[in-house]
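Re: that backbone. Tokens:
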């Protein structure tokens, strides 16, 4: 008797599903917005004048439990400067075959150089294609930014950059209104 009821209950599931509301996702034609704070592709951020925030300290690589990050720092010089201060990230790689999206790396970053975006479309058909380097991780240049290498803003120090008091490298800087608060940096990403 039990053997007879088993298949019947299975058909019952099929029958109920035939009348249930379809739950079809039409990806990639229709994309569902990600949840707030989604851990997607990483981004290496810039200061408002285009200099890179990464100082090549490797803290993100040491924090990564999956050993997915490889960093090689190098010295800035006055003739060739990529970031404020002494060092910059000359080589920066994230291996998305290893990354588990935990976000520990962005917590470890002392300059907020590294954040994560909503981009989850990281696919390829070979291993090398999923090792992202600076060309795919660096934030795009926004208006007022200049591609490094270039000097720091005249009269500013690396501390001014860290404190967020450096303005974009615009042609016609508008005089600062002391009654206005400094706007929050917009790096197009989130922690
Ligand atoms: S999100 Fe996690 S696994 Fe991925 S690179 Fe960062 S620390 Fe490593
Ligand atoms: S991303 Fe942040 S933690 Fe990683 S090397 Fe650059 S500055 Fe250091």
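Recovered sequence:
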């Amino acid at each position: 008797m039990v053997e007879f009821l088993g298949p019947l209950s299975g058909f019952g599931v099929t029958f109920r599903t035939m009348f249930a509301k379809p739950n079809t996702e039409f990806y990639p034609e229709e994309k569902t917005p990600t949840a707030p704070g989604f851990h997607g592709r990483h981004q290496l951020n810039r200061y408002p004048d285009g200099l890179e925030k990464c100082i090549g300290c490797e803290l993100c690589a040491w924090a990564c439990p999956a050993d997915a990050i490889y960093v090689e720092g190098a010295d800035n010089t006055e003739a060739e400067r990529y970031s404020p201060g002494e060092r910059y990230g000359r080589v920066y790689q994230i291996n998305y075959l290893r990354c588990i999206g935990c976000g520990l790396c962005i917590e470890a970053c002392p300059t907020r150089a590294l954040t994560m975006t909503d981009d989850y479309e990281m696919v390829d058909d070979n291993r090398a294609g999923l090792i992202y380097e600076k060309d795919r991780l660096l934030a795009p240049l926004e208006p007022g930014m200049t591609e490094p290498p270039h000097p720091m803003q005249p009269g500013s120090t690396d501390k001014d950059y860290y404190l967020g008091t450096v303005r974009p490298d615009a042609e016609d800087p508008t005089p600062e209104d002391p009654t206005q608060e400094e706007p929050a940096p917009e790096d197009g990403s989130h922690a």
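The helical segments are 2-18, 59-63, 104-108, 134-137, 158-163. The pocket of iron/sulfur cluster (ligand 1) is lined by residues 63-64, 66, 68-69, 94, 99-105 (CB under 6 Å).
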